[in-house]
Design brief:
Strand content: 15-25%
Structural class: alpha+beta
Distance between the termini: 19 Å
Order of helices and strands: EHEEHEHEHHEHEEHEEEEEHEEHHEHE
Number of helices: 11
Number of strands: 17
Shape: globular
CATH topology of the largest domain: Rossmann fold
Largest sheet: 7 strands, antiparallel
Length: 344
């Protein structure tokens, strides 16, 4: 039996990892879920669940350590961005103390991905196409700044604070602390935007799955797999330079010459992980099987589209109360309802 712990079960990334684990039918996998709140829907799709401290708590690692030790966890997959740096720092310590493999990218990769200014500089330094990038303070001093441009926080998520500026006046009116804001050239258009997934395990990189995407509120809610040799080679080259271990997500656009340029890196499994899994490339399965020495090759349904929608979960309040009072719970499979229907 392979035991996998997924944190952040209340968020889309954590739930996508859990869904992808459920799609692995030829390995005996026991899924443990963890979150800070009992009202996190993804918990109730797991085999056993726990309440844990938040990542900023001094008791965060202690709350995880109790699970590692008591449940003999083989793999720990952090499902939130905020956990990544600390997990990368503590990866070796956790492996030595508990025999648990933390599925996380190297710390330098996490740091580069977390800061969009560092991302652009990294691409430039490695001779890879990149969007021209300035600090907002510097951009306002450039006479021939190529409007329209995109202004956004150097460190941010879910497209919060991302604004298009069509003039110097609009750019100067960007709210907040300008020292924390970057400005990038506007690349291509909405029809040329892709989210790309690649997985690294023990020095081996998976193929790249590129999805042309349509966004809503910063999330991909429609996606279409497309084969593009230039995009795939570009993403692979970046992943090699970063030393990707685990999953990595690259968001990019093609410019008007068809050249791909990454504007954001997520050094983790992405919110589109279940999209990839249902299309025939399960990133979680790739990682676990290759780490276990089991062959796995993606078989992509290229003639497919993915449409995201809401679903609901109804469960007894007694389950919520038990988890809140005791900190752990074995959910009743009969209460589960998901994209895949009721679990049997």
């Amino acid at each position: 039996m392979i035991t996998v712990l997924v944190t952040g079960a209340g968020g889309g990334v954590g739930q996508g990892i859990i869904k992808s684990l459920r799609l692995i039918t030829d390995l005996p996998i026991r899924i443990l879920g963890a979150d800070m709140a009992a009202q996190s829907a993804g918990l109730y799709a797991c085999d056993k669940v726990f309440l844990v401290e938040g990542c900023r708590s001094p008791r965060y690692l202690e709350s995880l350590a109790r699970i590692f030790e008591a449940e003999s966890v083989d793999y720990y997959i952090p499902g939130t961005d905020i956990e990544l740096a600390l997990c990368a720092e503590k990866r070796e310590e956790i492996a030595q103390r508990f025999g648990t493999r933390v599925v996380v990218n190297p710390l330098n990769a996490v740091q580069i991905a977390d800061d969009k200014a560092l991302t652009s500089a990294f691409l430039k330094e490695n001779g890879l196409p990149y969007p021209r990038t300035w600090s907002l303070v510097d951009a306002l001093k450039i006479d021939d700044l190529p409007f329209p441009v995109i202004a956004k926080p150097a460190v941010g998520f879910r497209s919060i604070g991302v604004e298009r500026a069509n003039s110097r006046e609009e750019l100067a009116a960007y709210p907040g602390d300008h020292s924390q804001i970057i400005v990038q050239e506007l690349i291509g258009d909405d029809t040329r935007e892709f989210t790309c997934t690649i997985v690294g395990v023990n020095g081996k990189l998976s193929p790249v799955l590129a999805l042309r995407r349509i966004l809503r509120s910063g999330d991909t809610y429609r996606a279409f797999p497309e084969q593009n040799a230039e995009v795939e080679a570009y993403v692979t080259a970046i992943a090699e330079k970063l030393g990707v271990e685990g999953a990595c997500n690259f968001q990019l656009r093609l410019d008007h010459d068809g050249v791909p340029k990454v504007f954001e890196i997520n050094a983790r499994f992405s919110g589109t992980t279940p999209f990839c899994s249902q299309l025939g490339f399960n990133p979680v399965e790739f990682y676990i099987k290759h780490d276990q020495g089991i062959p796995y090759s993606p078989e992509i349904a290229w003639d497919s589209a993915v449409l995201r929608y809401w679903s609901e979960l109804v469960l007894p309040t007694a389950a919520l109360n038990q988890l809140e009072n005791t900190g752990e719970l074995i959910p009743d499979p009969g209460t589960q309802f998901s994209l895949y229907g009721r679990r049997s």
